[in-house]
Write a structure and sequence with these properties.
CATH class: Alpha Beta
Distance between the termini: 21 Å
Largest sheet: 6 strands, parallel
CATH topology: Rossmann fold
Strand order of the largest sheet: 1-6-5-2-3-4
Length: 159
């Protein structure tokens, strides 16, 4: 099913090196807004920085693929020292493919991490890689987002 994540976590901080290594995952394609930080926040929270440091120390390959603009993604990714792909057009898979090429990762060892079923998870499933849904850091207030989040609950385990 295109909308069902492979794994579900409360936050990126719950995704451990041990968990990833046990499953042969060596590369993570990361969403930005409401996955690593709150929507449009230019400052990475300490918990995301700590988690990313652990991932880097363990040799995990990391890249950001965001549907947001170059102007939004560039300064954030630069702060983190991560490669990135802005305007990712997820759920289309072109930029997931691009990210995998940059990381030098295979389908088997790649996982897309994000907070939206209809972009991040669907894109991963269409590409044929594993996906890790993380609940959004902060609920969005706009009506379209609230509607989309309500529909997403159909594909997620109860919290």
């Amino acid at each position: 099913m295109f909308f069902k994540p492979t794994y579900v976590f409360n936050s990126v901080g719950e995704i451990s090196i041990k968990f990833l290594k046990k499953r042969g995952i060596k590369a993570l394609i990361l969403d930005l807004d409401n996955t690593l930080t709150t929507h449009n926040n230019p400052v990475p929270p300490e918990r995301s920085l700590n988690w990313l440091d652990k991932m880097k120390e363990a040799g995990m390959k990391l890249i950001i693929v965001s549907n947001n603009s170059t102007e939004r993604v560039t300064p954030f990714a630069n702060q983190l020292g991560l490669d990135f792909v802005p305007r990712g057009c997820k759920p289309l898979t072109f930029d997931i493919t691009n990210a995998m090429k940059r990381l030098g990762s295979s389908h088997r060892e790649t996982c897309v991490v994000g907070d939206q079923i209809f972009t991040d998870i669907m894109g991963a499933n269409l590409k044929g890689v594993r996906s890790a849904f993380v609940f959004p850091i902060e609920p969005e207030t706009s009506l379209p987002f609230r509607f989309k989040r309500k529909i997403e609950t159909l594909f997620l385990p109860k919290r």
